[in-house]
Design brief:
It contains two helices and five strands. By secondary structure, the chain is of the alpha+beta class. The protein is globular and about 40 Å long. The termini are far apart.
Length: about 120
């Protein structure tokens, strides 16, 4: 299975799991000129932007460790674009989450990182 198909499979697993946790899914694979966000949803009053990472095992580290500063900046730029185009106000609560799937183990890191200003 190629990387894209593998990604789609585990994004679907993560999405179904999030639905069971009460997350309302708004978008999947939202793309714009700045990049992509795997899942966008609403949960407990927050607009959440979720990155899904998968690895078969942790021999090269946990999947969530792959969401470094560069990826966080990209997610924040895309989130800013999304919020602007969908008319969310600046004071609307936002959260950045990561779903880490390692083998068959799924972990949901809520508020995994803070917003990074696009000017940094």
């Amino acid at each position: 299975m190629n990387k894209r198909k593998t990604g789609e499979k585990y994004e679907e697993i993560a999405t179904q799991w999030l639905l069971k946790q009460g997350v309302r899914i708004l978008e999947r694979n939202f793309r714009c000129r700045f990049g992509e966000i795997d899942v966008i949803g609403r949960h407990e009053g927050y607009l959440i932007f979720i990155e899904v990472k998968y690895r078969a095992d942790n021999s090269k580290g946990y999947p969530s460790e792959a969401v470094g500063l560069s990826k966080q900046k990209t997610i924040c730029k895309v989130a800013d674009f999304y919020r602007t185009t969908k008319k969310y106000t600046e004071d609307h609560p936002v959260r950045y989450d990561v779903i880490d799937i390692c083998g068959n183990d799924l972990k949901w890191y809520q508020n995994a990182f803070l917003h990074i200003n696009r000017y940094c």
